[in-house]
Structures are given as structure tokens and as C-alpha cells.
Amino acid sequence: MKKIVIASNNPGKLKELKALLDPLGLEAIAQSEFRITEAEEPHGTFLENALEKARHASRSTGLAALADDSGLCVRSLGGEPGVHSAHYAGREGAREERDARNNAKLVAALADREDRAAFYYCVLVLTRSAADPTPLVAEGRWHGAIALVPRGRNGFGYDPYFVPRAASRTAAEMPPEEKNRVSHRARALESLAHLLED
Question: pLDDT tens digits, residue range 79-129?
Fold first, then answer.
């Protein structure tokens, strides 16, 4: 399994996953290179959505597929935006517009709350084939809090507002190489690497 299709069209996720997979000796190919559209994400859990995406990409290409479903979970909002993170404020517009609306909605929801603790969550699902009965599943969490004023130009999504625990900078202020060592996605991929070794 040297070639693997990444079941995402999100440019931020693709960039991070390719950088994280490269040291494992896996050639990561974006599903867009096969003209595969994004799978539906109708489920209420990250795991179910990731499995749906991985099977869809594997079925369409005949290759092993890696899918990521991830999001931001805020304690005082009952875990929201959670599994709806990408479309928290609606599905209309380009990704940058949606990110701006999502962040505005998040900040408004937290404006009068003292508790702004949050964590990024990521689940990775690797299917060796579309019908793989034992897909590999790994998860990672990155704890922190939400700032009410954005800082930084790196990353994507909620990164300008997410301040990791014991850090003074937001995820968007971190250089990509640093974020790729400590993020929820990095932690999930580290767990996945151990599963692959086994």
C-alpha cells in the first residue's frame, strides 16, 4: 500500500495530511485528481462520516483511502460546532466565506461566556478497499480555548481563534511545520502510524 487516496477536497486538510504522510513513505493523492466529488456527510458522528468518505473514495478509485473528519468542540456550547464545524453558519459560498461566517457565529455565541474551553477533534479512517471489514481508526484531540479576536494568517477554519493549551499563540500564528507536530490531526496520524506498524 504505497499509494493512498485522500478522501477530501479541503485544501487545508490536503496540505496538512500530505505533509504528515510523506515521512511514512506513502504517496498521497487527492481525490480531486480522480475527479471524485466529496461524499455526503449525513451522519451525526465524526467516525461515521469519516468511514463514509473513505469507502466512497476507495470505491471510486480502487485504492486504499484515508479520510479525516474533524472539527472544533466547544464545552460551553454543548460540543458545538462539532460535527457541523465546516457548515456551522451555512453551506453557501466559497470555503473562505464559510470560514468567515463560521468564525463570526462562534465568536457571537461565546461573547457573553466566561468558559471558552474547546478542543479540536480528528478521526482518521484508513480503508484498504471499499469493502474493508476492519478499517483502521485513529483519533486525536488538541485542547485549548477560543480567543474572541483573530490572530495569525496560517492554517484554516477556526485556527485564528484557537489558542492551544499552555500556548500564547493561536494555531494560525504557528508555522505550519510546528502545527503539524502538535495538532489533533498530527496526533491522530501518529496513532494511525502505530496501527500500520502493527
Answer: 999 999 999 999 999 989 999 999 999 999 999 999 999 999 999 999 999
Known catalytic membership, residue 69: yes
The residue behind cell 500530505 is: 18
Determine the topology of domain 3-197 in CATH.
Maf protein (3.90.950)
- Whether this prediction's pTM lies above 0.85 is answered by yes
Residues 34, 52: Cα–Cα separation, whole Å: 18
Whose CA is closest to 132, among 43, 66, 40? Answer: 66
C-alpha cell belonging to residue 91: 453551506
* Greater model confidence, 14 or 158: 158
> Any idea where the domains of the chain sit in the sequence?
3-197
What is the rounded (10 degree) CA torsion for 174, 177, 178, 181? 140
Q: Name the active-site residue from 69, 112, 115, 159.
A: 69
Q: What angle do CA 40, 49, 79 make, to 5 degrees?
A: 115
Instruction: Determine the Cα–Cα distance for residues 46 and 117; give it in Å rounded to an integer.
Output: 20
Dump the DSSP string for 5-54.
EE----HHHHHHHHHHHGGGT-EEEEGGGGTPPPPP---SSHHHHHHHHH
